[in-house]
Specification:
By secondary structure, the protein is mainly alpha-helical. 62% of the residues lie in helices and 4% in strands. The protein has a domain of 106 residues. It has a two-stranded antiparallel ribbon. Helix 6 runs antiparallel to helix 7. The longest helix has 23 residues. The two termini are 25 Å apart. The protein binds zinc ion (ZN).
Amino acid sequence: MIAAKARFRYAKKLQRIAGYRVPDFAFNGGAFMDILVSSLDYDSLDRTMRSQIIQFYKDFLECKCKESPQCGCPERKFALKILELRRLGLDHRQISEILVDDYGVEIYPPTDILSFLEDSVHTLEAIRDVARIEGKEKLLQETIDAIREIEGK
Ligand SMILES: [Zn+2]
């Protein structure tokens, strides 16, 4: 699970501002998300941190599940975001830079992104094979396209 490796780069700084413990891992048990959603004084953050946190919230935390943010959507959306960036043609280093710039979130080492992309291709290949056997043409084509885009061919 790639989201489990996402660290909030400015956790220490945020902790000083917030005055309570902020976990390093951005998706860890929902604790960080609860802080984001509830009690942070946004005016005390600098402009960059504020926009990163708001972007993080918008892109990963907004869902209508009752158990949100413990529903699994944030982690799934984060994984999809990485795949989406890859499908736009970015390599793992560029993806890593975007995650820092946009969300203040770091995957270290960036080669973990590479492993995640390879794992995703393997999963898609398994889905593709089943789709082929079961004659699901639309799904088959979608997985073939996704694999090609992730592999960058
Ligand atoms: Zn959800």
